[in-house]
Design brief:
The structure is a single chain. The protein starts with a helix and ends in a 16-residue tail after the last helix. It has two domains: 147 residues, NAD(P)-binding Rossmann-like Domain (Rossmann fold), CATH 3.40.50; 117 residues, N-(1-d-carboxylethyl)-l-norvaline Dehydrogenase, domain 2. The chain has twelve helices and eight strands. Strand 4, helix 5 and strand 5 form a beta-alpha-beta unit. Helix content is 53%, strand content 12%. The strands form three sheets. The chain has a three-stranded parallel β-sheet, with helices on both faces. It is mainly alpha-helical. It is globular, with a radius of gyration of 20 Å. Pfam families: NAD_binding_11, NAD_binding_2. This is Dehydrogenase. It comes from Streptomyces xanthochromogenes. InterPro entries: 6-PGluconate_DH-like_C_sf, 6PGD_dom2, 6PGDH_NADP-bd, HIBADH-like_NADP-bd, HIBADH-related, HIBADH-related_NP60_sf, NAD(P)-bd_dom_sf. Keywords: NAD, Oxidoreductase.
């Protein structure tokens, strides 16, 4: 996701400096025109906008501390990772201590939209920074949804959106699993719903991944499990019971335990196999 966004920024003609905890991943962007830095502080020093794209809240927090010496007052921080509302508020508080302007900005989309600059970006933060952020947001996304002026709002919306995605993927996996079990050609099912009110592009994309055996992750199963746990934590705090999402979490956990964590999240399909 981070590499895709970096390339989208470069295509837009923006000056991009990159750092990654695994330097080889950052080095891969050098041929695209990015300036690669060996340390986080060097990558952010003097930048107008800092963008982070990592797996979870602790990783973002660690990256922020690694970059702290290079930050300057008034710098804008676009935090695009899905970390959950609580972590978003904690990061905002730390940004305040560093005098950095924090934007809670999780993105909706996977690897391909990130590479194409077609993400949807949910943003919560001070409206005064919108103009300065515009070139970055326009480069990485096809749409920006300004949620609120205070951090946390965008992260809450992202959990709602991810609940839809996660349970939709589980439904695709279970339909194809039942088709296999009943000796029904899954393509008959896909053809039966094609073009009708029950059809979705996601159904065909995820089915194609399974049917071709190409589980290269556009969104890794282990990351989906992390997000599902964030959703369930937030729901519990809100007094909302999410039976489908709890079941999705259980399937993701079984598939991860069976060795599918690094594959695309549609590998939750394999959690329905009795031998696994």
């Amino acid at each position: 996701m981070g590499s895709g966004m970096a390339r989208s920024l470069l295509r837009a003609g923006l000056v991009v400096r990159v750092w990654n905890r695994t330097e080889a991943k950052a080095r891969a962007l050098a041929d695209d025109g990015a300036a690669v830095h060996a340390d986080a502080a060097g990558a952010v020093r003097g930048a107008d906008v800092v963008l982070t794209a990592l797996n979870d809240g602790p990783s973002v927090s660690a990256a922020l501390e690694a970059a702290a010496d290079g930050l300057h007052p008034g710098q804008l921080w676009l935090q695009t990772s899905t970390v959950g509302p609580d972590a978003a508020l904690e990061l905002a508080a730390r940004a305040g201590e560093l005098e950095v302007v924090y934007y809670d900005s999780p993105v909706l989309g996977t690897k391909a939209p990130a590479e194409q600059g077609k993400l949807t970006v949910f943003v919560s933060g001070a409206p005064e920074g919108r103009e300065r952020l515009a070139p970055v947001l326009e480069a990485i996304g096809q749409r920006t949804v300004w949620v609120s002026h205070e951090p946390g709002g965008a992260s809450r919306l992202k959990l709602v959106a991810n609940t839809w995605v996660i349970n939709l993927v589980g439904a695709v996996a279970e339909c194809l699993g039942l088709a296999e079990g009943l000796q029904v050609d899954p393509r008959l099912f896909l053809d039966a719903v094609a073009g009708g009110p029950l059809d979705t592009g996601y159904l065909h994309a995820k089915s194609a991944a399974l049917l071709t055996g190409d589980l290269t992750p556009s969104f890794a199963l282990s990351t989906a499990l992390k997000d599902t746990r964030l959703i369930l934590e937030a729901a519990e705090q809100a007094g909302v019971r999410l039976d489908l999402t709890e079941a999705s979490a259980e399937r993701f956990a079984r598939a991860e335990a069976a060795g599918h964590g690094s594959e695309d999240m549609i590998a939750t399909y394999y959690a329905g196999r009795a031998e696994e």
